[in-house]
Amino acid sequence: xxxxxxxxxxxxxxxxxxxxxxxxxxxxxxxxxxxxxxxxxxxxxxxxxxxxxxxxxxxxxxxxxxxxxxxxxxxxxxxxxxxxxxxxxxxxxxxxxxxxxxxxxxxxxxxxxxxxxxxxxxxxxxxxxxxxxxxxxxxxxxxxxxxxxxxxxxxxxxxxxxxxxxxxxxxxxxxxxxxxxxxxxxxxxxxxxxxxxxxxxxxxxxxxxxxxxxxxxxxxxxxxxxxxxxxxxxxxxxxxxxxxxxxxxxxxxxxxxxxxx
Length: 261
Ligand code: MN
Hints:
β1 (2-6), α1 (14-23) and β2 (30-36) form a beta-alpha-beta unit. The protein starts with a strand and ends with a helix. The radius of gyration is 20 Å and the shape is globular. It has one domain: 3-Layer(aba) Sandwich (Stationary-phase Survival Protein Sure Homolog, Chain: A), CATH 3.40.1210.10. The chain is of the alpha/beta class. It has seven helices and eleven strands. The chain has helices spanning 14-23, 73-84, 105-108, 110-120, 143-159, 224-229, 254-258; strands at residues 2-6, 30-36, 55-59, 65-69, 91-97, 125-130, 165-171, 182-184, 189-200, 206-218, 233-239. Helices cover 25% and strands 30% of the residues. The strands form two sheets. It has a nine-stranded mixed beta sheet with strand order 3-4-2-1-5-6-7-11-8, sandwiched between helices. A two-stranded antiparallel ribbon has the order 9-10. Manganese (II) ion binds at residues 8-9, 41, 97, 110-111. Manganese (II) ion binds next to α4.
């Protein structure tokens, strides 16, 4: 099994190394790393079309070889799957993101959208994030999340995933033995607390931050947010088909009405 490892935090991020090290323990697995050279967190699903992309060799902190690119996370996946890696890729694993990716976060997340890019190419994909629960300056421990990622990758390697489906995995920031299980979840409801922060630069010009406190969420049963609140790993299957089937009935008659029928 040839696994492509990528992330949105940059090729030097500790979560990427933890993930690559864990996946290398899968018997017979061949791991390639191609990741952005800088932090692309919260840049969503993107494609670089107006400038060329560069790719170069780097060494990860353990001395192993990886590839870095000046493209986005989804560019990295596209580069790899369009032939930059000669060997076909069987699975893409993205992460480990240091912050949770829950509810609407998945549309902002470079971690998740890298996985989305893979399923567009018909390659199964897993996005892995730490589920929060740590202090702002704490040095993070990726071991449990990496081990969960390894086990989920093994499962997907054996069973496969339906086409167009990716798995969004969030793992509580606790030691492996403290995890309270794994739940298949739906996306929960995030509560964003962003505010428009206006400041002045040293030359008197106004600038803005889209900022605020970290989002919270509604810990409903059956959701990713609910699972994490109970110390449970959330595994949310996501589909690229975003069609709102439930909305069809309410839109009946729209065509006739707007066209004056
Ligand atoms: Mn990130």
